[in-house]
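hey so i finally got around to running the thing on that chain from the lab meeting. sorry it took forever, my laptop kept dying and i had to restart like 3 times. anyway pasting the input first so we r on the same page abt which one it is
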Amino acid sequence: ALDGDVAYFSIPHGGNGYGSGGQIKTFRYNSTSSSWGSLSNVILPAPPAGYFWSNTAGAGIGALDGVLVFPATYNQNGVQLGSRLFSRGTSDQDCDGNGIADLCEISNGTGIDLDGNGLLDVCEGIGAAYCQPTALNSAGIFGQLSADGSLYAQENSLTLRTAQLPPNQFGYAINSPYQGVVPNPGGSQGTLCIFGPSLGRHNRLGDVKYSGTAGEFDVIIDLASFPSPMGPIMVQAGETWNFQVWYRDQNPGSTSNMTNAVSLTFQ
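ok and heres what got predicted. didnt touch it at all, straight out
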């Protein structure tokens, strides 16, 4: 269980004919060091005859990038009882508004996280799309852009997802804190929907993507090294950034086009 910055671990009792004591181990999160420190354990009373408390493992507790790892524990019969991972970055959030911290849902298996990125799928698909539909590309459809991940800047978890692009073409993301409408920039067949002097290009090594036969690609955005005309910056809580993807096309000659835009306000 999580209560603010405190995590509690214990194993419930079960019948096996033995009686033994146990304890609840507690840890407090330190935001300065991004790590968890052990607190005094809660000693449990002896359970009724025929039941036992499995002692929680004392070793193996550690933190990596703010993740508290509780190792698998075993009862006296050698049966593994399970383990837990808690990422402090999302423990107090409730993106689906059901009154349960999202991380508790993930750890207890009640949330759905099909892509295994530690974020409930119901919370993905962030931001507000605008400037759509865009110009048709050579595939006869509109290039689409959406965003997945977290609006919490400190988590640095943002992926731009494109779809309905022409196959086998290159493209990259661009960003700006401003919105605007610039038709056919640089001879493009699309419309530039982000604007202003602060136009950042995600065209560094590894950022330029290829649509392949499926006509789609993902762009992982590094909020801690965010491209801008002034060089890399760090995105801060309270800032609004707009994204769009510019891609090459043959329609019918060499040209380019753009997806719709997505606006994200970070917390």
